[in-house]
Every structure is written in structure tokens, then in C-alpha cells.
């Protein structure tokens, strides 16, 4: 399993830096997270540290995003992996839809998402549409997705909200970012709600000594975690992000 996920990271990294898909802009970061009240499938609480590799980029006809979580990377027996790859194709960039000047709708994208978990979660394929909005946020998008989880009967829908808002001063530059996922019930899996808002101090935006570092706290809330009825995970976690 370890070899599969490391190989996938290399494959996706090669894809996004390939000359065929030359990025208009891109950012890659490594995140370290630590929390003390995670929930196992049986409801027991446990402490976990996590290493996340995240990449986002924009290219001529769309965008690309992927991340891989490595939980408890310093433990041989408790290490787990989770990854997602989310390519999107911009209808506007492909010239299929024009937007009037001043429109609050910034872009419309054909969205795909592939979840690659290890553990109680199951692999899932998603497809739908993303709407990017220009209404006071640095980034704001809503996604309406068809969701098909492997090993579950039937299919369902998913709604996703993603946001980023920068604020503060040159001396204290903050950002408020995060996502919210709501997925309907599917087979034996109950509908579940997960959100992870974070408040970070962005040292990279300081007027002097632009260190590519963000430091702050993230709150994790997951109702019916893994689609298990009544399993609730709700706690803060420390977060450090290094950008390169």
C-alpha cells in the first residue's frame, strides 16, 4: 500500500509539471497537523499526527488539485494513507461559455474527483460541476457532484464548499480557509457532513523576511464519520504549512 501511494504522488507530480500541461501558476506545500481526539470506527478516541502533501495549479484549460495524507508517519504499525485527485476543466477557458464583465460568477468547471483511501473509508469516484464566485473572497467555489462509492450499492450526491479569505495587516497577515463536504446516504453508508475551517498566520505575506510558512489552528468536524451513524469527530488541531 505504501508503494502504491508514493508511486501515485510521483505520477501526479509528473503530470502537473509535464510540458503538455504546463501550469500557468502552481503551489505545492507540506502540512503538519496534530490532534488528540480523533475517532476510530469503533468510537474510541486517539491521538494522531499527520503529514500532508498538497498541490494546486492552473493550466490553459482548467485546474488541478491533489493531496495525500500520511497519518502517524513515525509509527510502523499505525501509519495510514488517504489521497484525493481533483482535475477540473474550465468551460470558460475552453471558450464554451462567456461571462459578462462584472458577473459574480467567475468560472464554471467540469469537475472530477477520485478518493483513494486506506482503512474504513472506501474508494469513490465523483463528477459534476464547480462554480467559482467573485463575491468578496479570494477564492470561493461551490461544487455539485455525483458520487459513486466502490463496494456500496447505488449512488448519491455530494455538495462541496471551498473558501479562502485573506485579511489583517502587513505585520499580522491572516487567512481563513477551509472546506465543507456533505454527502448523501449510499448503500449502508449514512449521509455525513465534514468541515475543516482553519485560521492561519501567513508569514509569507509579511512585508519583511518573506518566510514561506503558515501557522495556526484548524477545526475538524465530521458528523457520521465514515458514513457510520452517530460517529462524531469534533476537535481542534494544530497546523503548520510550509510552501515551496
Core attributes:
single chain, 244 residues, mainly beta, 13-stranded antiparallel β-sheet, 1 helix, globular, disordered N terminus
Q: Could you characterize what this model shows?
A:
With 244 residues, the protein is mostly beta strands. The protein contains one helix and 13 strands. The chain has one helix spanning 2-17; strands at 23-39, 45-59, 62-71, 80-90, 105-117, 124-133, 139-149, 156-168, 173-183, 192-195, 198-202, 213-223, 232-243. Strands 1, 2, 3, 4, 5, 6, 7, 8, 9, 10, 11, 12 and 13 form a 13-stranded antiparallel β-sheet that branches. β3 (62-71) and β4 form a beta hairpin. Mean pLDDT is 88; it is low at 1-12 and 14-20.
Describe the biggest sheet?
13 strands, antiparallel
> What's the total number of strands?
13
Beta-strand percent range? over 45%
State the low-pLDDT regions, or none: 1-12, 14-20
Write the layout of secondary structure elements.
Blueprint: H1 2-17, E1 23-39, E2 45-59, E3 62-71, E4 80-90, E5 105-117, E6 124-133, E7 139-149, E8 156-168, E9 173-183, E10 192-195, E11 198-202, E12 213-223, E13 232-243
Antiparallel strand pairs: 1-2, 1-13, 2-3, 3-4, 4-5, 5-6, 6-7, 7-8, 8-9, 9-10, 9-11, 10-12, 11-12, 12-13
